[in-house]
Amino acid sequence: MATNRPYYEVIRDLLAANIDSGRLPAGTRLITAAVADRLGVSRPPVKRALARLEQEGRLRHSRETGYVVGAGRDVEPIRLNLHALDLDLSGPLSPPSPQATWERIFETVESDILNCMPFGTYQISEAGLGDHFSVSRTVIRDVLSRMQDRALISKDRSSHWIAGPLSARMLDDAHAVRRLLEPSALASALPHLDAGLLAQMRERVRQALDNRTAVSQPTIDVLETDLHILCLEPVRNRRLADAARLAQLSLVVNRLFGTYIGVHDESEMLMEHRLVLDHLILRDGAGTETALRYHLDADHQRARARLKVLSVFSAPEIAPYLIRVH
Prior knowledge:
It comes from Vineibacter terrae. By secondary structure, the chain is an alpha+beta fold. It is built from 13 helices and seven strands.
């Protein structure tokens, strides 16, 4: 289907329809990887779709069970084989434009690698990666070479692909680039941002501030996506937008901290988001840049402190093609 809608919204609509019809029964546990496998899509858009459904009240989320269909706490979580359920998948799920084979798995591999980097050094098994995604060695080398171009991985002396560790120095370097690029990218997107969309983003921040001490990580993910991903989508200069996105390492650290350490007070971050959105709604480009730069500086300090905490843990969940070195 040709569409200008974000792909995760297509997935969100399909899952919502199956929940509302009862084809996804109350209590069903929805694991990102399992849902992606059932739908035949990559994990990143599924993750965003599940976070949006949780915010809408169709799902609930906890560290113990992940996402569960139904908002009530009295619903007992059940693990079902999604392939055995009679789901209505008649809606179009193909990505809006044709992709090369390496592009279909790139986002998932990138996410897997970024998720392991704060926890140590990992070797990437080319054979394991190929088996995991059922693709050829040529496709794998295309993916890994592009990861290397983005400075996410490197080769050691034995020519093994290595990811991590994510150091404070790497975080500092990424921040230096990000604070130069992202404010100007957001200002350039401002004339093309829909006023209604900005108002919805602002309202989500307000609701989170009203419940600031118990905001779930999926809700935080939605708010971060609003400001740092969706607001940059209208940027005409795609090289600028892509370079800004690649420097967003603090988002990875913050998400992992919230996922594995637990619920924590995000009042400062929420108020910073509110200020940026206020300037966007006022169509104040200079104010938007200043407010975003202030937020990025403050968020960098939070991410730096959280990276120290994460570094003492082992990665709770890593892809099977990643082998811990140290």
